[in-house]
């Protein structure tokens, strides 16, 4: 009997060991599957984060470029108010030359040289006289009257020169236009 009980005990222990091994194998399989699932989730998260990072870098570059453009524009047109004020001096020097007529005196030559120097300096910083020879352009010219001697849509008389600063209208040219 003792041997039978020993055999039964051994059989029982063997069954328990086999069951334990089967459970361990199942847990190992479940663990591998769950690990693979976790790995795929992590890979998806990584892809998402890489996309977010790339988007953030792209947005930062665009913002940097926009700020640089705005800074360049601000630099270009920082002189706008100052240049507008100088145009009054240019107009006064031109009126002084026109009032003198054809007489060439030392004073009139000095005024002409001063005007030439001022215009050269303005051109150096992007201030350019508006062309009035190619007909009327409402974007650049301000019609203040009708000139009966001029052809239709042509500029007859320029009352005040206009100027641009780096292509932006600083002051329109005041002109008389043909009807």
TrEMBL record:
<keyword id="KW-0346">Stress response</keyword>
<comment type="subunit">
    <text>Homodimer.</text>
</comment>
<dbReference type="Pfam" id="PF01025">
    <property type="entry name" value="GrpE"/>
</dbReference>
<comment type="function">
    <text>Participates actively in the response to hyperosmotic and heat shock by preventing the aggregation of stress-denatured proteins, in association with DnaK and GrpE. It is the nucleotide exchange factor for DnaK and may function as a thermosensor. Unfolded proteins bind initially to DnaJ; upon interaction with the DnaJ-bound protein, DnaK hydrolyzes its bound ATP, resulting in the formation of a stable complex. GrpE releases ADP from DnaK; ATP binding to DnaK triggers the release of the substrate protein, thus completing the reaction cycle.</text>
</comment>
<feature type="region of interest" description="Disordered">
    <location>
        <begin position="1"/>
        <end position="36"/>
    </location>
</feature>
<dbReference type="InterPro" id="IPR000740">
    <property type="entry name" value="GrpE"/>
</dbReference>
<dbReference type="InterPro" id="IPR009012">
    <property type="entry name" value="GrpE_head"/>
</dbReference>
<protein>
    <recommendedName>
        <fullName>Protein GrpE</fullName>
    </recommendedName>
</protein>
<feature type="compositionally biased region" description="Low complexity">
    <location>
        <begin position="17"/>
        <end position="36"/>
    </location>
</feature>
<keyword id="KW-0143">Chaperone</keyword>
<comment type="similarity">
    <text>Belongs to the GrpE family.</text>
</comment>
<dbReference type="InterPro" id="IPR013805">
    <property type="entry name" value="GrpE_CC"/>
</dbReference>
<keyword id="KW-0963">Cytoplasm</keyword>
